[in-house]
Amino acid sequence: MDTKPFTVDGWVEAIPAPGPRGTATFDLIVRPADIDALPDDAPDTVVTCTSEDPRITHELLAGVQPGDLLRVTGTLVQPPAPGEPARLTVDALEVLDTGLIPVLRDMVMDRYGDYCVIFDADHEKVPVFTALGRWVGLADNPDAIATLIDIHERVTGGDA
Known about the structure:
Elements: E1 3-12, E2 17-18, E3 24-30, E4 45-51, H1 54-62, E5 69-77, E6 86-97, E7 107-112, E8 115-120, E9 126-130, E10 135-139, H2 145-156
Parallel strand pairs: 4-6
Antiparallel strand pairs: 1-3, 1-5, 2-3, 3-4, 5-6, 7-8, 8-9, 9-10
């Protein structure tokens, strides 16, 4: 297995996830320094990162969000097969810049007693869940929410 020390700057793609035995994993999106010389459709490089250091794991799980720009240093393990992402065991982490906090603009969550609905400006249909997160169904439009809830309560005996 080919390994080497490695430092890279990149953006966090998704919320870091807890792993087994106190680890945390995340994908880092890395763009080449000469990005302007590459074609517009050139793919980014994805480096899969893992950390076993408790301080780094805590920072990843409690403070790092998608869009954050990180500098990570660690041991890079080449992928076992072509096309698979390289793996980096992170020994040092520095947050260079934080990403923008996402704002839900055209989406609103509302509560109807023991039920929650999500209104999305891009869709006519309305997802309906119980307040405990169980799927109820998809109302054809906002006016059909009450009918869907009524049917659900009759079928379940009011057990939201």
